[in-house]
C-alpha cells in the first residue's frame, strides 16, 4: 500500500479497533472519533479512550483491564499519535473501507471510491502483511490450508493426526487472541511485535521492506 493511501486510511484503520458504535455527540463522525482518540493519547487518559469503545467491546473488556493494557502499550500510543499528526490537510477526511473474510482465511480489504467499493489488498494468493494482525490472519489461513492428503504420503497416521490437531488448535488460539483488544504489543522502535495466545505461546513479528513477517513461533 502506498504511503499516501496509508495516511488516507488512517482514520478508518483506527475505527477498526474502536468503532461499530462510539460515544455520542460530535465523536460519531470518523474525524471526530479520531480527534477524540488523539486527545486521549496526548493526555495519556485511558478512561477517555475507553469511553470511545463500542458498547459491545466495553461489555467484554472492563475498565480496569483496559487501563492495565493501556499502560503496557505506550510505544504503540506514541506511534499512533505520530501517525495521526502526520496526516496531510488534504487527507483529514476519512476514507471508508470494508473487510471481508473468505474460506481458507483470506481477508480482502476494500475502499469506497467513486460511489463503489474497490479491492485494496488481500486478493487470494497475495496475503496481506501490512500489519502484524494481518500477517497472523494469513498464517491462520496457511495453517488451516495444510493438506492432509499430501502429508499422508510422507507421515504415519498417528503423526498426521497429532500434527493436524496441533495446527488446528494453534490456528484457533491465534484467531481468538486477535479478537482481544491490546493482544499485540510493540517494541519501542515499532520494528517488532508480539502476539500472545493460548497458554504461554507467542508469535513474534518483524517489520521488513515486504511487510510484517513471523520471526518466531512459540
Structure description:
The protein is of the alpha+beta class and 218 residues long. Helix content is 46%, strand content 20%. It has helices spanning 3-8, 10-18, 30-42, 46-50, 55-60, 63-72, 74-85, 132-144, 148-151, 157-178; strands at 97-102, 106-113, 116-121, 184-186, 192-197, 201-208, 211-217. The strands form two sheets. A four-stranded antiparallel beta sheet has the order 4-5-6-7, covered by helices on one side. A three-stranded antiparallel beta sheet has the order 1-2-3, with helices on one face. Helix 2 crosses helix 3, helix 3 packs across helix 7 (74-85) and helix 8 (132-144) packs antiparallel against helix 10 (157-178).
Secondary-structure map with pairings?
Elements: H1 3-8, H2 10-18, H3 30-42, H4 46-50, H5 55-60, H6 63-72, H7 74-85, E1 97-102, E2 106-113, E3 116-121, H8 132-144, H9 148-151, H10 157-178, E4 184-186, E5 192-197, E6 201-208, E7 211-217
Antiparallel strand pairs: 1-2, 2-3, 4-5, 5-6, 6-7
Helix pairs in contact: 2-3, 3-7, 8-10
What is the element string, with H for helices and E for strands? Answer: HHHHHHHEEEHHHEEEE
Helix content: 40-55%
Average of per-residue pLDDT values = 77
The CA-CA distance between the termini, in Å, is 30 Å
**What does the overall shape look like?**
globular
How many beta strands in the DSSP annotation? 7
Amino acid at each position: 500500500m502506498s504511503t499516501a493511501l496509508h495516511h488516507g486510511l488512517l482514520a478508518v484503520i483506527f475505527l477498526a479497533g474502536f468503532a461499530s458504535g462510539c460515544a455520542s455527540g460530535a465523536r460519531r463522525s470518523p474525524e471526530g472519533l479520531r480527534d477524540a482518540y488523539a486527545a486521549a493519547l496526548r493526555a495519556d487518559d485511558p478512561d477517555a479512550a475507553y469511553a470511545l469503545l463500542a458498547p459491545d467491546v466495553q461489555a467484554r473488556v472492563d475498565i480496569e483491564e483496559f487501563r492495565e493494557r493501556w499502560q503496557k502499550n505506550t510505544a504503540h500510543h506514541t506511534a499512533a499519535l505520530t501517525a495521526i499528526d502526520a496526516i496531510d490537510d488534504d487527507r483529514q477526511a476519512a476514507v471508508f473501507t470494508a473487510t471481508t473474510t473468505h474460506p481458507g482465511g483470506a481477508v480482502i480489504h476494500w475502499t469506497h471510491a467513486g460511489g463503489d467499493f474497490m479491492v485494496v489488498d488481500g486478493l487470494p494468493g497475495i496475503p496481506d502483511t501490512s500489519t502484524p494482525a494481518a500477517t497472523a490472519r494469513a498464517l491462520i489461513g496457511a495453517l488451516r490450508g495444510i493438506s492432509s492428503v499430501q502429508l499422508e504420503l510422507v507421515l504415519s497416521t498417528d503423526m498426521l493426526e497429532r500434527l493436524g490437531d496441533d495446527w488446528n488448535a494453534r490456528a484457533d488460539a491465534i484467531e481468538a487472541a486477535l479478537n482481544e483488544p491490546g493482544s499485540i504489543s510493540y517494541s519501542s522502535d515499532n520494528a517488532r511485535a508480539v502476539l500472545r495466545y493460548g497458554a504461554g505461546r507467542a508469535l513474534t513479528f518483524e517489520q521488513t521492506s515486504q511487510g510484517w513477517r513471523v520471526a518466531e513461533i512459540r
